[in-house]
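Most newcomers find our protein records easier to grasp once they have seen one. A learned vocabulary of local backbone shapes supplies the integers on the structure line. An example says more than a description, so a record of this kind follows:
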Amino acid sequence: MNILVIADLHIGNNDFFETFGWNADEFIESMELVIKKAKIDKVVLNGDIFELYKYTYKEICQTQHKLITYFKNPKFVMLQGNHDAINGKARENLTITNEDGKTIFIEHGHSVDFMNGSRIGRKIQTFLHTILRHIIKFKWAHKTYFKILEFDDAINRVPRKYNSYKYLKHALKLLKVYDMVIMGHTHKLEAYKTYYLQNKKQYINCGSCSMGRFQGVIVNTNKMIVETLKFKNKAALFKEFKKQRNVVPAKMAVSA
């Protein structure tokens, strides 16, 4: 079985707070091309699909009904992230076991840090976003917001802000039980392999599909082969996927 895992879309209601950066039709078109060319059997939406810190689910449904409908495809499995933890239709994690008994564990990964992994942390962030949405109508607040965004963007700086070590440490604990662990949350596309009791283990982070880019991983669950996808925009993705292609293994960095 071939699975596509993507995360951290942060879909909102198309206002200037939103960091998804995709037109709904173009994103769906891109997804369908990847699904067709890579012969994807299942798509895992690995958390932070919706930006529920800034918007209500009702607001998103009103402006992004095409994507909401598209994600209802039975081929899609939705997992919870910190930004959409209140999504009652999503599950916490997913475990896949292949014919050889090899296991793949998929979760968003936000439980590792306080602000995103705890209820009080999420409440603090939601409260701050609520205040911002009320004061943004003032001209001074609008200008200040964009200056802050330019200096320290919440999406662009995520890979530098998060310390990868604690996520690797968390993954290594899980890899004592599972053969492959896939997370999101950090917006940092990466792949590592290691060995535990002479068994090959793999940790993958599927990156982010925000800011108009397309990142993710394709996994052949039978062969436990991984391909990472990293495209800065739709044009780059189409240039690659319009070619006749087969899923190939990703180049893995080795973790001690």
Remarks:
- The first helix runs from residue 24 to 37.
- The domain at 2-254 is CATH 3.60.21.10 (Purple Acid Phosphatase; chain A, domain 2).
- The chain has a mean pLDDT of 82.
- The first strand starts at residue 2 and ends at 6.
